[in-house]
Amino acid sequence: QEKFTLRMAETWGPNFPIFGDTTKRFAENVEKMSNGRLQVRIDSANKHKAPLGVFDMVKAGQYDLGHSASYYWKGKVPETLYFTSMPFGMNAMEQYAWFYHGGGMELMQEVYEPHNMLSFPGGNTGVQMGGWFRKEIKSLDDLKGLKMRIPGFAGEVFAEVGVNPTNIAPGELYTALERNTIDAVEWVGPALDLRLGFQQIADYYYTGWHEPATELQFLVNKKVWEKLPQDLQEIMRIAMRTASYDMLVHSQHENAKAWANIKEEYPNVQIKQFPQDIFQAMYDANKKLLKEAAAGSEIAAKIIESQQNYLEQSRAYTDISERAYLNTMAEVE
Amino acid sequence: MIGIIMFGVALLMLMLGFPVAFTFGGVALFFGIFAEGMDLFAFMPYRIMSVMQNTVLMAVPLFIFMGVVLQRTKLAEQLLSSMGRLFGGLPGGLAISTILVGALLAASTGVVGASVVAMGLISLPVMMAHKYDKRLSTGTICAAGTLGQIVPPSIILIILGDVLGLPVGDLFKAAVWPGVVLIGLYIVYILILTRFKPETAPAMPADPDRSRKQEIVSALLAIIPPLALIVVVLGSIFTGIATPTESAALGGVGAVVLALIYRQFSFQMVWDSARDTVKVTAMVFAILIGATAFSMVFSYTGGDYLLEEWMLQLPGEKWGFIVLAMLVILVLGFFIDFVEISFIIVPILAPIAEALGINMLWFAILIAMNLQTSFLTPPFGFSLFYLKGVAPPQIKTTDIYKGVLPFILLQILVLAMIIIFPGWFGMSSTY
Amino acid sequence: MRWIIKLDEGLGKLSNLCGWIAIVALILMTANVFYDVITRYVFNDVSIGMQEMEWHLYSVVFLFGIPYALRSDGHVRVDVFYNNWGQKARAWVNLVGALLFVIPFAYLIGTYGYSFAIDAYQMGEGSGDPGGLPHRWIIKAVIPLTAIFTATAGLGMATFALRVLSGEKQYEEGHGGEGLA
Ligand code: NA
Ligand code: NA
Fold first, then answer.
1. Most A-contacting residue of B304, B343, B348 (CB-CB within 10 A), to test interface
2. Do C105 and B22 touch (CB under 8 A)?
């Protein structure tokens, strides 16, 4: 039987925790399930040197597979933005339901098809934290003129309420925050933030709103996919789906562990939530930006509508299940 | 295996004297096409793009510009020779001043290309004018310019923090004492050398018409303006006004302002400084691009897997592991870029070290110290090429190769001290 | 021989044009970074577009600088033997090196860089960050563009070597980039 070796470029550095474990598990599973007929060789960012070139490299066929996040391609193909996570959007459970049962996958394929690629969910971080702040944010005024490292669409929402999104090279982020060159940094969540040491220099750790369910993605070059026999395609499909689920669970595990560590070793760190007026302003800003995006692109309008309808229906049920349960727990504890 | 042969061939080709950058690129080209075909080079635009978007490297042209302006306006000379004069009849004053200025630059940036070239521009002409030994001068400058790697903020520590999962702040703190000790040893070495061989570093001639006191006062007065510039640059970083990279631009603008104050300013001067800066910057980045082509061919022909296999052969006992790991990194550092080592080798060593109960912070500092040495080791030490690129023609590559040797030995000495007496540096080798 | 001299002089002018572009970009870049620091610190204002302009200019500096430095012999060499050799031997090293290393290397970067830039153009790629710069293809196109100039500078290196071989020109001792310090 014919053997296949596929080369995968990932956006992450070698041994990047959680994200990198996801691709490694995927490669292992594929090999085991196919009895060695399908092998995946992973090249990390240190090898291809193009963390944000994964899209182009898979498109051009320089790599067969990619592992990245869809919203990184917003500057190239604006509609890719919606397949990672949206401010005030669905949580991980709701979003997976949308992808697999609510038409999300079909919409994602529609966006990636013209670029000669297939895209599949590739693992979720869960709710991302809202960022590290050096000063407490008590009102909308405190946000005005605040210099924050926050890229992408969330940065645009923040900009709408007066924040100054600022670019800082990742290597200088720590120093920049420590010395007040910037006032705040948005990164991921406890497990990954801990490595950068922000807990040593910023006291206020804000809860998230902007990326409630950051989904990574597998990219597959279409020609490569079509060359695979059907059983190997199925093995890939299942391995990708398992990898996504594994990453969500792994994120929960590592974040909980890291958070326990921060609580114990850095008593200076306080968890904060933005006050209501800020959330309301950002909620409105988000709505306005989505409206503009929908007006500018037919397919964006279709995706936004699908997501909003799905969120409404799904959230109504989340409210009487998960939320009701957590509320109950809060009362007895 | 192709990777290893390629290193050998590159070494031979370099000796022919064709520009280093294009020798790397050209050798990579032949081996790459031979082993993988033309399409391997479709990765090159991405690699060039990653250099373009690496904004930390912006410090290179900016610091060089500052250095060139200070040199053209003679302010650098004034700073160094006045500092040298403060040492009175003591030989080696200029060399010690160079180390001190290098330490200041190191505390403001972690970009070696920037500080080696800037130091080369600032102090090499002054040392040459005062009849310093070529080897002592070039060795001092390379060593002083490379201090930026271990003295925080430092790129290598940030990368190691990422690879090893250690907070950057802890690493920066842990690196302070090793950095200070290294600087101290450099100075002690120069003092001892010049005591026995004063002709290698003649003392600055005293002005017979002035008393020692007058001399000190006038020297201090002369130091103030250029030193103020350095303080502005450093101050802007420490107060957070600018990131380390941006501070380099403040330095460049500041140098032009100083020139204005000293009536040295002209548009021609700025244009000529910019032209020199472009030339030197292009030299540095051409090497980076040539080297990235080289490392691309090395890793895509399986060189990284080969290294991985070697690493897994290291012994499983603490001291044997430490010593051999350090030796391997040192030898690899002769040939391979420190970023490659951090990303390929360190992730393999880390779990072994962890299993042996080794304190990862200490281990990280050992690696950083070791990788700093790789900038200085012939034949491929980047600092050596950078200095050669700005040195006058009477200074030969071999002068630089020989000049850095004592400083390499000093670095190995400090490395050994940290290994054997971690307590002296406020660390421990185990948890 | 006459046409080689003509060609060589033309190629030299092309490389000097690259140098001129790089010098202007360097001055603009220094001013750009300075401006960004001041507006952020004094006026508490940040423009991601201006921040991105920094690396655009910085890329222009070194990419256009490379062909310029090639013409003015600013690229560092290992001179263990080179400096002891005569004019003819050096000319041969430069002639062969230019034809075998510089031109093919630049050619490959140019070819692949061209599709790299075209792809960005066709997708209308821009910055994904708030207030970032549009038209990413422009800066990406600098890669193939400067690759062409590097190739012509390589050709210039070869024509100059031919002039030296014919005895009409000489390499200066420690000319160009060397000896800045
Ligand atoms: Na440093
Ligand atoms: Na080296």
1. B343
2. yes
Whether residues C79 and B385 touch (CB distance < 8 A) is answered with: no
Q: How far is C29 from chain B (nearest CA, A)?
A: 9
Q: Out of B46, B165, B243, whose CB is closest to A48?
A: B46
Tens-digit pLDDT profile for residues B301-321 = 888 788 777 777 777 778 888
On whether the CB atoms of residues A24 and A42 are closer than 8 A, the answer is yes
Cα(A165)–Cα(C152) distance, integer angstroms? 42
- pLDDT confidence of B109, banded at 50, 70, 90? low
* Residue A118: per-residue pLDDT: 97
Give the distance, in angstroms, between the CA of residue B245 and the centroid of all CA atoms in the same chain: 16
Q: Which residues of B touch A178 (CB under 8 A)?
A: 169, 240
Contacts of A197 in chain B (CB under 8 A): 161, 167-170
pLDDT of A69 strictly over 90: yes
Q: Taking an 8 Å Cβ-Cβ cutoff, which residues of chain C contact chain A?
A: 40, 44-46, 48, 51-52, 115-116, 119-120, 123-132, 136
Of the listed ligands, the closest to the CA of B112 is: 1
Cα-Cα end-to-end distance for chain C: 36
| In a domain? residue C175 | no
Check CB contact under 8 Å for C94 and B242. no
CA atoms within 13 A on the CB side of B383: 36
Instruction: Give the residue numbers spanning the domain of C95.
Output: 2-165
Domain count, chain C: 1
B26 touches chain C (CB under 8 A): yes
Distance from CA of B316 to the nearest CA of C (A): 41
Considering only CA atoms, give the Rg of chain C.
Answer: 20
pLDDT digits 0-9 by tens, B343-372: 777 877 887 888 888 888 999 999 999 888
| Residue C177 counted as domain residue | no
Q: Which chains touch A (3 or more CB pairs under 8 A)?
A: B, C
**Residue B18 in contact with partner chain C when CB distance is under 8 A:** yes
- Is C83 contained in some domain? yes
Within the 220-239 window of chain B, which residues sit less than 8 Å (CB to CB) from chain C?
Answer: 236
Torsion angle defined by CA atoms of residues B15, B17, B18 and B23, in that order, rounded to the nearest 10 degrees: 20
CA distance B92 to chain C (A): 20
For the record, the structure tokens of C176 come out as 């160009």
**pLDDT tens digits for range B216-228:** 887 787 778 777 7
pLDDT at residue number C164? 92
Cβ A168 vs Cβ A187: under 8 Å: no
Distance CA A54, CA B232 (A): 41
**How far, in Å, are B20, B137, B143, B371, B380 from residue B403 at the CA level?**
20, 8, 10, 19, 15
Q: For residue C118, is pLDDT > 90?
A: yes
Q: Is residue C68 part of a domain?
A: yes
Each residue of B260-269: pLDDT tens digit? 888 888 999 9
- Indicate the average pLDDT of chain A: 93
How do A204-206 and A184-185 pair as beta strands?
A: unpaired
pTM equals 0.88
Domain ranges of chain B: 35-425
How close is the nearest chain A Cα to the Cα of B313, in Å? 20
**Are C177 and B390 a contacting pair at CB < 8 A?**
yes
Cα B372 to ligand 2 centroid, rounded to whole Å: 9
| Complex ipTM | 0.92
Per-residue pLDDT at B394 exceeds 80: yes
Angle at B311 between CA B308 and CA B315, to 5 degrees: 155
Sequence-distant (6+) residues with CB within 8 A of A50 are: A9, A56, A57, B43, B46, B47, B49, B50
For residue B153, cis peptide bond before it (omega within 30 degrees of 0): yes
On whether the CB atoms of residues A304 and A82 are closer than 8 A, the answer is yes
- Which helix (H) or strand (E) is A117 found in, with range? strand A117-124
